[in-house]
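TL;DR need structure tokens for one chain.
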Amino acid sequence: MAPTTFPPYITDAMTEETPEETAKAKAACQSMLDLYNFIRHRKSMQNFDDSVMSNLRLITASGTPGNLLADPPTRPSAHPSCLLELDMTSEYANLNEVVHGGAAALVFDMCTTLSLCPIARPGYWDFMGGVTRTLNVSYLKAIPSGTKIRIRSWAVQHGRTATLLRGQMESVDGQIVYATCEQHKIHLPMSEEHLRHRGEMLAERKKMLEDQKEDEKRKKPKL
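>> reply
TL;DR here they are.
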């Protein structure tokens, strides 16, 4: 296996995974975005990171959770990652009409967390399962208001109690790197409230699928 590149470009990671594994990694990241927005709407809350989480677009992801019960056991991917896209609209800008440093830090904080989703399992970096200890951002080039950017996030190391994450903001074509970050997070278990909301979201989705199947049956012409 080729050595992991930093940042680990998704196309490189995907060559080491099956299409099914890539699809599962992407679904895991999308599930966190969906659950966050489900909770936000269910509680009718307006949060500090609402705009980021409701407007992030997931491009792809890589990483597998492994199976410690298999024979032989398989370990989770060492460097799970995700690639996201976001329009840096005027709400993120300062009076100079460029993205505010604090806004960039917020975007990084949420996007780096998403990179852990492909390897998450119950009790191990599942939904919102950590708190930031440090977040160091290097601002390399101003991002003009209205710019569409991509955020590349990956885990350098992850364990039961702590993880080291990195992120990179770049132009869509990858030719410009606007900012980078390094983040240390400490693991916390998923809250009972979030577990309850996840169950509610899954139940709603199941009901929706069942209703769709019933509609298809009713619409199907009888012979």
